[in-house]
Each structure stands twice: as structure tokens, then as C-alpha cells.
Amino acid sequence: MGTAAQSRVCATARTAVLASADASFRERMRSALSDLRWQVREAQGGAEILACLDASPAEAVVLDSWLPDLEIQEFVAEFKRVHPEVDLIMADASVAAGSAARGPRRNEVLHALRRAQATDDAIWNSAPDEAVMRTFGNGGTAGADSEPGRAEVRWHGPGLSAPSVAVSAEPQCGSVAAAGTAAGKVSGLPEFVGSHPAMLEVSRRIRLVAPRTTPVLIEGPTGSGKELVANALHRLSQRSRRKLIALNCAAIPEGLLEAELFGHTRGAFTGAVDGRCGRIEAANGGTLFLDEIGEMPLGLQAKLLRFLESGELQRVGDNESVKVDVRIVAATHQPLARLVAQGGFRADLYYRLAVFVIRTPSLEGRSEDIETLTRHFLEKFAKESPAKQITAPALARLVAHSWRGNVRELEHALERAWILAEDRPRIDAGEIELDEPD
Ligand SMILES: Nc1ncnc2c1ncn2[C@@H]1O[C@H](COP(=O)(O)OP(=O)(O)OP(=O)(O)O)[C@@H](O)[C@H]1O
Ligand SMILES: [Mg+2]
Predict the structure, then answer these.
(1) 245 with 353, same domain?
(2) Per the structure, how many domains does the chain have?
(3) Which of 192, 227, 291 has most ligand 1 atoms within 8 Å of CB, for mutation?
(4) Are 355 and 371 found together in one domain?
(5) CB burial class (10 A; 0-12, 13-18, 19+) of residue 349?
(6) Minimum-distance ligand to the CA of 332?
(7) pTM value surpassing 0.90
């Protein structure tokens, strides 16, 4: 081998570029690869990966399935063209679709990925069957939902397979169109009634992101299940033994919000008779759910951003900093990107929160789900009083309605109808009172 080729091998041998927006994942992966004597360079986005490789070559690139500044499939195509010799491995351990290069030490990277995941999530430390159950909820089947055209995702570890995950052609955020292909044969989480592809996509996304510390932004209209998503994210995370603390930014007067979030010392302001820890501290080790984040005043957004960047906060009236470890889940009924464009929300905070977006779909147009949800709610009411059926004309009225208040509105309409049906065993169309004309 010539000297030029030798020096190239030396430069690339055991060097990996790690591309993920999730700092804690990068840290664990760096540690796992360093133990295997790899040199690691980190990138937070696609542009940085290319800059890293331009600066000096690497043997492998480990690429997260979502990065803030790129569309993965486009990036992979471009990457193969520019760097055909570099082994491109997805962070979920799949091989990037069509990736030709296969580095001699790919198994080491896969091993490190498995270790990084194991540290992130006790799932991988538990017995395989239990791990699969916890990851998939009821009725899920690990590794069974791979489809033609999707990169195969399998752990190469002994006897333990991880969920199959679509990594190609996936848009940044869950959309109905994406759900039709990406959700595939995925089963819904038990608390999410409905089998519309957009609903299954919500469950799929929850399963993918719940075990990580990645911040999640939930967007969806009122009553569409945003809080349900936040609860599921916490339940399926390693933090589920600690608290899920919720704060509705729209429900607390602006003047009190800062103290509520960050806590305060005794005498920090008029009426602060005792010191109190805030919701962020209360969620230490667990999940902080910031509901209606779009309503947070701009001044407080700056303070929240500082906390997210440093992991430290100061109670109101205190000079001491406190370190807090929380996973942030935020929700909004108004598209946050639009608020950013209108100047009502800080762009830098938006990018911090919207690392992974889950969209809860509106109920309109999901007629098959209206039927299933109706059955679900009638069964729920029947636990407290004698069961009732719904007649076909009554159901037809429900299906034809526009449901601006989404699932919550449907639940309330059925509760009303249940009461109006008195002790009859059937709910008829006359008992369906809707909030607005059809
Ligand atoms: N897919 C679903 N399956 C079963 N129940 C659902 C579903 N989606 C929502 N619900 C129920 O509908 C009600 C409203 O849901 P939730 O409070 O999560 O909505 P939300 O999006 O947070 O609403 P808001 O924007 O008004 O805060 C709850 O009772 C919830 O359990
Ligand atoms: Mg809510």
C-alpha cells in the first residue's frame, strides 16, 4: 500500500462523526465509541457533518433520523455522491438506504449504538420480552413492521431486537400523508383510540421518542389529545418513576408565571411569605410538560431558554443556581412556527423545543375513528350506569358533524346524549345535541 493510501487509512481509522441534535445521546455515544478507541467528532446538523468531513476524513458517520436542518433522504443521496467511501449508519442502528460503503469496523459502531441506547433507557437492560412489551405497549411486535423500501432496523445484539423504524422519506413532522406510508402496520398505543393513519403515526412517534431525552413539541387543535400524548411520553420513558409536572402557561397570570416556573425565595416579592420551589425543580429527574407554550410572555421565554441551555436555574430573588435535570415536553394549539414568524415567539427557543414534533390530528374526516371513539366512550359510561347502544341515525349525525372541539367535544356530546336518553337502552338521533349547526 502506498504512503498516501496508508496516511488516508490512518486518518480515517476509527474516526466517526456523530450527528444528532440530542446532546445527551451524543455524549453517551461518544463515551461508548471512545471505549472502543474511536475518535469522535460531533455535529448538530447536516451542514456541520459536511464541514467536519471537509476538514478531515472519517470512517463512519452516525446520523440521527431527524436533524433540524435537513431532509434525511435528500441528505443521504447527496452524502453518497460526495462521500461514497464513508460508512453511513443511522442512529437507530439501521443502514442508510442505498448506502454502499461498509466500514470494516461497522459492528463496533453498532455495538456502541446499542450501549448508548442501553444507558438511555433501562428497556435494553431488562429481559428481551419485557423490553419489547414496554417499547410497544399492548399488541406491538418488535421488528415485525418493516416494509419494502424502508431501511431495515435491527439490533445486532444477541437475542434482542429493537423496533423497526422507518428512516427513509420521513418528513420532519408527522402529517397525514406521511402517516399513510410511515405508520404502516404499527399498532396504536392503548390509550389512543382510533386507527386512522394519522392517529397511528402519533403512537409510532411516541414510541420512537419516549425513551430518549429529546425535547418534544406537541401541536394540535383543542381537544385532540395533546395532554394524552404528554402523559404517554412520560409513561413510556425511563423517567416514569419520577414525576410528570404540568404547567399551563395560559392559565396562570403573567406576573405569577415566572415564580411558578422557577420558584422564589422568601420575601422575593410582596406576598412571598415562604420560599417555594418552582415547577421545573419539582420535575427534577422527570418530565416537565409546558402546556400552551405559545402563551408564554417573551421575557419569560428568554429565561426558559437560558435554563434549557445551561440546565441551571435561579429562583426569583435568589443568586444561587440550582442544577435541574428535566425532559421538556411542550404543547400548543397554535402552530409555533407561525407565532415565530409573527414575532410572538422566540425563534431560538422554538428550535430548542421543536427537536421532535408530534401532531395530534383533528377529528374531522376521521369517520371510522368517530365510530370507534363513540363505542369507547359508551363503554366508559357503562361502567357507572346500565349500558346503552347507539342507533344508526344517531351515529350518522355524529359522523356528519364537524367537531371543532375534537375528541373532547365528542365525549361531551355523548355524555349529554346519555343523560337525555334517561333509562332507555338506546341513544337516538334526537338525543344528539351538537354545539353548532352541521
Ligand atoms: N385518540 C384518543 N383516544 C381516546 N381519548 C382521546 C383521544 N384523544 C383525546 N382523547 C380524550 O379527549 C379529551 C381531550 O384530550 P386532551 O385533554 O389530551 O386534549 P388537548 O389537545 O390537550 O386539548 P386542549 O388543547 O383543549 O388542552 C380527554 O378526555 C382525552 O382522554
Ligand atoms: Mg390540553
Answers:
(1) yes
(2) 4
(3) 227
(4) no
(5) buried
(6) 1
(7) no
